[in-house]
Amino acid sequence: MSDVTESFLRYRECARMVWNLFLREDADADTIVAFDSIREQLFAEIVLGEIGLADYRRKALEPIHLLEVSPALPETAIMVQRAGGGDTRYWDDPTTFVSSGSAKFVYVDCFDWDQFAYRDFRFVMVDIVHWNAKPELRGRRALLNVDQVKISLSASVATPG
């Protein structure tokens, strides 16, 4: 698998800077929508462009199945979305740790608790594709600390070129 963690961290830093220094101060709902569009373009150029997929497009918050997110530590803290899915933003499932190699996650987005405050993008939002010990969590969203993950091009995707 091709590791894109470093390009993801560059994207994260760039998006944080754009929001925190240039857009946050007078932000309203329209600013949030515009910033989401800017972030998608930055992500395409900085992360996907590195692996020859800059033209890849998706709907908002649609998982990018070609990017796998994996714990970088033997055990990593995780917050799993409450059962029921949908737009619920409760991350209170009793599961709080994941072991490296025990689950498959795909990238959805960066996550911050407050869209109008300073952004840190401390968390990576993922879709749970499978989890050996917890099959009931398949299809739910989860949050992983950005400092405790690796992001890679899925082995099942052939890189163009």
Structure description:
- The chain has 161 residues and is α+β, with helices and mostly antiparallel strands.
- It has one domain.
- The protein has two helices and seven strands, in the order ααβββββββ.
- It has a seven-stranded antiparallel β-sheet with strand order 3-2-6-5-4-1-7, with helices on one face.
- Helix 1 runs antiparallel to helix 2.
- The model has no long low-confidence stretch (mean pLDDT 93).
Attribute tags:
161 residues, 7 strands, seven-stranded antiparallel beta sheet, 2 helices
What is the tally of beta strands?
7
Domain module count: 1
Q: Roughly how many Å apart are the termini?
A: 15 Å
CA radius of gyration: 16 Å
Number of H/I helices: 2
Query: Can you write the helix and strand succession as a string?
Result: HHEEEEEEE
User: Outline, from the CA principal axes?
Assistant: globular
- Tell me the β content: 25-35%
Helical amount: 10-25%
Q: Stretches where pLDDT falls below 50 for ≥5 residues?
A: none
* Structural category: alpha+beta
Sheet having the most strands: 7 strands, antiparallel
| Strand ordering within the main sheet | 3-2-6-5-4-1-7
Mean pLDDT: 93
Offer a quick outline of the entry:
This protein has 2 helices and 7 strands; from the N terminus they run ααβββββββ. The chain has helices at residues 5-23, 29-48; strands at residues 64-71, 75-80, 97-99, 103-111, 123-131, 141-145, 149-153.
